[in-house]
Amino acid sequence: MGNIISLARDSLTNLVSRMGTGRDKAASSYYAFTPLSDAELMAAYRTAWLPRKIVDIPAFDSVRAWRDWQAKGDKIEPIEAEEKRLNVRGKIFEAKVKARLWGGAAIHIGTGEANLAEPLNIERIGKGGLKYATVLTRRVLRAGEIERNVDSEYYGLPKTFSLTSAGNAQVEIHPSRLVIFQGNAQPDDDLTLSAETFWGDSVLQSVINAVKQADGTAANIASLVFEAKIDIIKVPNFMASLASEDYKAKILERYTLANTAKGINGTLLLDKEEEYEQKSASFATLPDVLDRFLQIVSGAADIPATRLLGQAPAGMNSTGESDLRNYYDRLSAMQEVEMTPAMHRLDEALIRSALGSRPSDVYYEWAPLWGMSEKEKADVFKTKADAGRTLAGGNGQSPLIPIDALSEALVNAFVEDGSLPGLEAAIDAFGTLAEQEPSQEEIAAAAAAASQNAGL
To answer: I want to staple 303 with a disulfide (CB 3.0 to 4.6 A). Which of 56, 112, 226, 308 is the partner?
Structure first.
């Protein structure tokens, strides 16, 4: 019974093999945090392709499809024009890249106000009130004292940020004037969170070892290419004759000449007593070894190999579609959980700057990152049409939903997914089904008129 209890413990110890003891080879393994300096981050990003793609790809993919504004009337075009004027999409991409590389970045919501230390009053922004949007990294934006008042909406954020401007003057900026992005967030521990630890870690911090191992493997394989074929010549009494300087000069001259002759006509001239052979290195398994290291990098960066490396999926009947779908689903969640809240004040300022007011019907949706093929779109349209026909009481059955209500719902569905381009404009021109069909009063009046005419 005692042995059973011993085996059921969380940690397995074997004194014979030293497993689980202080002399276990694994006992010396531990995790240590060695932060990457700004110089190391800069060098990795500028000189190595893997770190650059790890930083850039998710940032680019998160804004690639961008977003679709929804509103009634002619409100969308001014908002999109304001987005283009301020280059909001480009600024978000730049901020995301710098946040992932340096651990933190922010976009300053520029309204032209002099006192930036005061909270931003969104309601005071009128048409054209948003002047600029400037990207600042944590290297120039120093976090101040952390807000500890739990009743404050800025709890956990610095009360102010310090920006070094021209002439080394310090400018205090309130967090409400910033769109804040972070790289890999640090553990949220109230005991350790401070102005020095507010910003997150670079995304390269946790993957750099895997990147170095992959780069080192590729470099070693490249070095082996130069040793792929080695000529070996056996010379009688070679070592014994090396004591003579005259012999050294003659042996170098002799094989330089032999190598030159071989390069010209492919014929190697040797003495009868000399032996010649070639040894070639095998590279058969090296591509698999390198692929394993690159797959580790892909897993560490949480980017599918098909996207990170631009390679075709491996394996029978493999398309890589599942990996990409999971990746895009994660980015979609990041857009909703991270980007939308961070951009809230910027978007509110953008709407007011474009329209001069804040209509309640204005909102946006992130565009899908995964695009369906034409066949998939056709299948979805057919499925919706068949479902609508069933709900309308096809095959002589009674309608499950009033026809007018079903018509309105289907029109909205087809307009939102873009199945029928121009449908919304056509509905505006020709009216809905309910508008085209006569009312009960009109039907009764027409019937009465028909009866009267029949009596005549």
So the answer is: 308
